């Protein structure tokens, strides 16, 4: 089995050691061998990016458009193959894996268009015979650090805008899921991305990630990952004056009111809480249900959970794949035990037989918002059910969290849906829809402990990947 190498300055280069990428559905199945770089690899990548940056910045936007368009077209053409790889290395079901590959392709194609739509302003000066122009320029060299749970979509929605707006990139994917990252690197290279403009440095966060954050020539950091790492990274980046964008955790509420359509509420909660094995920062991990519908909702949701097929990600019959690795599975099972200790009635949650890291979805009935299971992000197929009296209490409980990424409500009331949309303390609000599941052409991000810095995705991405210059011109 050949080693997949890092891409630095247009060349495939060795690292300091090699990691083995395993299939969480069957850890005996080796997906591939991927080299790990070190701090010196980052230094080499920065030198290459620095040398390539000027030509990329001042190239015609058509050049950037063509590279991104070709990349998106190739990813789309290979969606089945890439989706298969994604499901093998991360554990999403095959349908979800292919869907994520399609999303990555759509993102690249969208930002191909954005490369041609960088606009500015001409403003009348208060002084006679002076012209004022406001323009957007690239930030410079961007360090990109991504998580394992969306191994091609999240890299795409960071890399594509960075390149579209004329920046160079140093990209470190999650050590658990390097396969899809390597595919992006290969596809960009074959699409004609100039040597050094895009660099892939796979490796551990403690070495590669630390050096990306600390390198003085890297101008900005875009990070998606855990809250503790994000907070540490923010301090280091701020001390160095780097521009920073972070997406971190979520403990997202789904409010279900008495007047909700029961089928809609159950389907939205089932999807939001348990699909993708609950390994989404937008997952509905707190189901806040009012008195009148509570028992019927729990009964129907429990039955729907029990009917889900948990199995090998590549099996077309599987609706829920494995947890990503043993460490995450152990953490999930620890929260199931904690839910019992905190006094919840637990439905499901047990480890399932098989070679992979399989867990049945878990529902924690009788939870309160003060319990740890309702406060801490579990990042697995586990959801707390919190009973409330009415809408007012539901809104209070929904907002009583350190996070603020996504929030949902199921109701047939225009009054309550409108009020919730305005009062929910979250960056994204879903009405009669799962809290997970977003479009690629609109902004993504949250409030409070969930996000920091400008939004990701859509035309709003320019706020992070560009800087504003104001020019005054006299004849």
UniProtKB/TrEMBL annotation:
The organism's place on the tree of life at top rank: Bacteria
Protein keywords: Oxidoreductase
CDD domains given in the database record: ALDH_KGSADH-YcbD
Matching Pfam families: Aldedh
Keyword Oxidoreductase among UniProt keywords: yes
Entry EC no(s): 1.2.1.5
GO MF: aldehyde dehydrogenase [NAD(P)+] activity
Recorded family membership: Belongs to the aldehyde dehydrogenase family.
Annotated protein name in UniProt: Aldehyde dehydrogenase, thermostable
Originating species: Octadecabacter temperatus
The gene coding this protein: aldHT
